Amino acid sequence: MISLLEARNIGKRFGGLQALTDVSLTINKGEVYGLIGPNGAGKTTFFNVLTGAYVPDGGEFVFNGSELPSGKPHKIVGRGIARTFQNIRLFKELTALENVMAGHHIRTKAGIWGILTQNRFTREEERLTTERAYEMLRYVGIERFAETVSKNLSYGDQRRLEIARALATEPQLLALDEPAAGMNATETGQLKTLIEQIRHDGVTVMLIEHDVKLVMGLCDRVAVLDFGRKIAEDVPAEVQRNEAVINAYLGGGKHAH
Amino acid sequence: MNELVAAVPWLGKRNPMAARWLLIILAIAAPFIAMQFGRSWVRILDFALLYMMLALGLNLVVGFAGLLDLGYIAFYAVGAYTFAFLASPHFGIHLPFWMVLPLGAAFAAVAGIMLGFPVLRLRGDYLAIVTLGFGEIIRIFMLNLNYPVNITNGPQGINMIDPIVLFGWDLSRNLQVTEEISIHSLYLYYYLFLACVIGSIIFIQRLQISRVGRAWAAMRDDELAAKAIGINTRNMKLLAFSLGATFGGVAGCLFGAFQGFVSPESFSLMESIAVLTMVVFGGMGNIAGAIVGAFVLALLPEILRDVAIPLQQTLFGKVILDPEVLRMLLLSLAMILMMLLRPAGLIPARARYAHPENLHRGGAAK
Amino acid sequence: METLIQQILNGLVIGSVYALIALGYTMVYGILGLINFAHGDVLMVGALTALQTMLFLMGFAPGMSPVVMLTIALAVAIPVCMMIGFTMERLAYRRLRNAPRLAPLITAIGMSFLLQTVAMIIWGRNYHTFPQLISTTPMQPIEGVFVTPVQLTIIGVSALIMIGLMLLVNKTRIGRAMRATAENHRVASLMGVDTNAVIAFTFVIGAALAAVAGVMFASNYGIAHYGMGFMPGLKAFTAAVLGGIGNLGGAMLGGITLGLVESLGAGYIEHLTFGFLNSSYQDIFAFIILGLVLIFKPTGLLGERVSDRA
């Protein structure tokens, strides 16, 4: 197995709150990796540190064999890590198509001069971007809404669009922050199929999720965070039996069911 | 252009082709129509075109990139003063127009980046106040840099600026076509400015429908998400400031040459606010809005001047609201009422950042 | 040495005026997150209303004692400004509380210019001499240092008002409601606070302070006109940011600091730049300070974080 991402002793503190303490984990190429834990365990903080929204106080990420720059989101996306947000964050005045095309930004190169003169390279690149964006929309199943302004899409379609936008950055690792939140059973089922498809097409997936059934059914391996520490990392079946994990969920007043 | 066509009342939706031709004919015939009301109206039209360029440039910063700039007129000033320094007896330098114009644009762009750097991290209202301060600093320097070395000639400003000369053709002189027929200089400037406005529209539309335009819109709608898809927001902001400033600088050069003199008075905060009102009034973020806003708000005060002054004379026997007061009243009310009643502006067209129909035409997808 | 003391004194005088205006900015910002751009122009309306009242009184009762006259002028100017503050909030800002983030600010800019225009219509475009009812004859407490009674009055009255405001905000029921609303509108209203009334009250108090500041400002310089509110308004905003916007103590500290910097800067700029820049550049200090604070210490001297607030 080849490791894609390696987190080494990641720490993050906000004022008096130690949000992450020495979190280390390894994600292998081609797997679906789950990150679970009670509310406030530090899962989203981990995502934010990984994707450069926050600078970690300690530790480092190694991605594809070399260290990731910390606190520089655009460089991290460039290296091949894309994310979605827990509370959907689309460009709400843009259409679905434009959202996905914006996602392709980092893989395009046209400069100001090329844009102003509309030279052959720019036109060709723009055509490819449009084409790719349609492909992505088709891939997540919302091509028919390509020209709908994204704020007018239904909740489930907004989630799909956000995934399409993230995929447009051509990531090797896709980090999904509670993609099933607020979805009904049918939508969750469709989401599961989509994530499996994404993995099948060669993108490694990291996933924060509360829906334990989804996590257990989908993930190859799962890490559990509690109070900013990793308390377990194993295949789903083992994690479910793990003493510390059960205590964390029960002790935190939350049931894993 | 399509947005503008669609904005033509009644005709725009039913017959876009006819609406397009109507606009083109009107644009060409405008100075001749204006001439029927007197020469000063042609001059007013010329100024309206300059305002359109300013509104287009500011719209790029405010409407596309979402950065509220209250000191935009400073870039206009940089352009105008560049022209005044390099083509007037003030320093005794008389560079040709085609050399000064790119210099003015470049200086304005540099000024835009200079403003951009310190304000990168600021958002919304703070950005507005700091840019306002920047505009005021530029104006204070223009007012006071006549001592100890006379650079700007202080409040008097700089006179006798060279006119625009293109290929040996002096635009400030009437063009003698035949013995009897001559084309007035104001017309020549009108068509030059019109060409500049059309050029600006084309450039801005190309920017809008490009990776850059989408990146700006993304940043405006959600900066954090924009970063998360790999947009370098720092560079994109600087680009917006400098490109917006470039349009201001070009308009400033044209203004200096057209007017023949520049003074700090022309670059007051009120002018920044006037341009902002034009953008807001027309509809932030769309090109047609900026054009229509600039056109209406540049002309309306002048129409009021012609109508309201005589009206007041007959009604009250004296002038209570002079033209300048009327203009300020109009602009401030336009701004407040627009925000309260129609925040999307007069022409609330959704700006487009992609051209999917090109793809369908080529049959490449679907 | 005399110059230094003199400049510090001048700085304190102008600084206390800035502080009074800054309080209005900071209270409104603290509660609504809105920069009320028109706040400086409320000051101008206060000064011109007071001027109008004085002119009327001078014609009506020429022998009236200056102190009584000034008091009456204030008694007219303050309610007028309060009404303007109330009206602005009620008619414009309240409707825009949930609007996109640039809308209230653009409206406030429009308000500022509307007030200036209306003042221009009423009082014309000229500079008016503002009657200096408190003596402006300089005294010389130290050889070479001059101070006028009007300057001493400004410092004294500002101090009193600030103490009063602190008491109002920290010790009274309405003050507590204000603090609760600033913390969180929704929760405050769930707790039974009439947040609309509290916000209106905040605008009204801010406007009253601006009226007093306007009269002081005009008395100090002996001049009033329609555009007089713009610069002090902007500088007071700078003072509020410098002190930490949303923080009352910060506004006072920021006001005094800015007054001192400006006054000392104007006194020494010619030395510092080898005669290249002179005191006509005094106005740029505020902007430079504003820029520096926002870049390097956006929380201000004593305040909350501001660069993330949209």
Question: Could you outline the blueprint of secondary structure elements for this entry?
Answer:
The complex is a heterotrimer of chains A (257), B (366) and C (310).
Chain A lengths: L2 E12 L2 E12 L3 E5 L6 H8 L7 E6 L2 E2 L5 H7 L1 E3 L12 H8 L8 H6 L2 H21 L14 H13 L5 E5 L7 H16 L3 E5 L3 H7 L2 E6 L2 E6 L1 H6 L1 H9 L6
Parallel strand pairs in A: 3-8, 3-9, 6-7, 7-8
Antiparallel strand pairs in A: 1-2, 1-4, 4-5, 9-10
Helix pairs in contact in A: 3-5, 3-6, 5-6
Chain B lengths: L1 H6 L3 H4 L1 H20 L3 H26 L8 H14 E2 L4 E2 L2 H23 L4 H21 L20 E2 L2 E2 L4 E2 L5 E2 L1 H24 L2 H11 L1 H6 L4 H27 L9 H14 L4 H30 L6 H19 L14 H7 L4
Antiparallel strand pairs in B: 1-2, 3-4, 5-6
Chain C lengths: L1 H31 L6 H22 L5 H26 L10 H22 L4 E2 L9 E4 L2 E3 L1 H23 L1 H11 L1 H6 L4 H27 L1 E2 L5 H14 L4 H25 L11 H13 L14
Antiparallel strand pairs in C: 1-4, 2-3
Can you offer a commentary on this structure?
Chain A has 257 residues and is an alpha/beta fold. Chain A has 2 domains: 1-80 and 171-257, 3-Layer(aba) Sandwich (Rossmann fold); 92-170, no CATH class. Chain A contains 10 helices and 10 strands. Chain A has a 6-stranded mixed β-sheet, sandwiched between helices. In chain A, strands 2-1-4-5 form a 4-stranded antiparallel β-sheet, covered by helices on one side. In chain A, a hairpin with a 2-residue loop joins strand 1 and strand 2. In chain A, helix 3 (96-103) crosses helix 5, helix 3 packs parallel to helix 6 (155-167) and helix 5 packs across helix 6 (155-167). Chain B is mainly α and 366 residues long. Chain B has one domain. Chain B is built from 15 helices and 6 strands. Chain B has helices at 2-7, 11-14, 16-35, 39-64, 73-86, 97-119, 124-144, 185-208, 211-221, 223-228, 233-259, 269-282, 287-316, 323-341, 356-362, and strands at 87-88, 93-94, 165-166, 169-170, 175-176, 182-183. In chain B, a hairpin with a 4-residue loop joins strand 1 (87-88) and strand 2. Mean pLDDT of chain B is 88; it is low at 362-366. Chain C has a single domain (2-134, 142-296), classed as ABC transporter involved in vitamin B12 uptake, BtuC (Orthogonal Bundle), CATH 1.10.3470. In chain C, strand 2 and strand 3 (145-147) form a beta hairpin. Chain C is globular and about 60 Å long. Classes of the chains: A alpha/beta (257), B mainly alpha (366), C mainly alpha (310). The interface between B and C is large, with 46 and 49 residues.
